[in-house]
Amino acid sequence: MAQFDVYVNPVKSQRADVPWCVDIQSDLLASLSTRLVVPVVPLKHLPAALPRRLCPVVQWQGESFVALPQMMAPFRVKDLGASRGSLRAQGNDLVAAIDAVISGV
Questions:
Q1: Residue 94: pLDDT above 90?
Q2: N or C: which end of the chain has fewer CB atoms below 10 A?
Q3: What are the beta bridge partners of residue 2?
Q4: Distance between CA atoms of 64 and 87, rounded to whole angstroms?
Q5: Angle at the Cα of 82 (from 102 to 40), degrees rounded to 5?
Q6: CA–CA separation, 102 vs 31, rounded Å?
Q7: In which element (H, E) is residue 99 found?
Q8: 54 with 98: CB under 8 angstroms?
Q9: Section 34-62 average pLDDT
Q10: pTM score, two decimals?
Q11: Region 60-83: what's the mean pLDDT?
């Protein structure tokens, strides 16, 4: 597991609306049994008026998605399964969005 890896949402009942989640937890905490993840939702499912600093648009598998850091949650490592890829190239935008949640900036 690595920071910014993408996983299938482990909550089956939510997958139609929230198919993916991205691990935003520092790799320095890899020994923990949980990872903090941010839901990633198809852009087409959300209103256009979302604040982009808080909810950045990310590209994943040729589609546009929106990260929702205000909804981040911990999941057990064993529930996340195998990584399906990485959003590392968009990591700065994800970290800035988390900063917006925490500090309002």
A1: yes
A2: C
A3: none
A4: 12
A5: 35
A6: 24
A7: helix 91-103
A8: no
A9: 87
A10: 0.91
A11: 95
Average pLDDT value over all residues in the chain: 92
The CATH number of the domain covering residues in 5-103: 2.30.30.110
pLDDT tens track for 15-26: 999 999 999 999
**Cross-strand bridge partners of residue 58:** 65
Q: Backbone phi, then psi, for 8, in 5-degree steps?
A: -65, 135
Cα–Cα distance for residue pair 88/86, rounded to 1 Å:
5
Q: Which residue has the tokens 């990584």?
A: 83
Give residue limits of the domains in the chain. Answer: 5-103
Entry field: residues in the chain: 105
Q: Which residues pair with 67 in a beta bridge?
A: 40
CB 20 within 8 A of CB 87: no
**Contact (CB, 8 A) for 59 and 37:** no
The full DSSP string for 68-81 is -GGG-EEEEHHHH-
pLDDT number for residue 17: 92
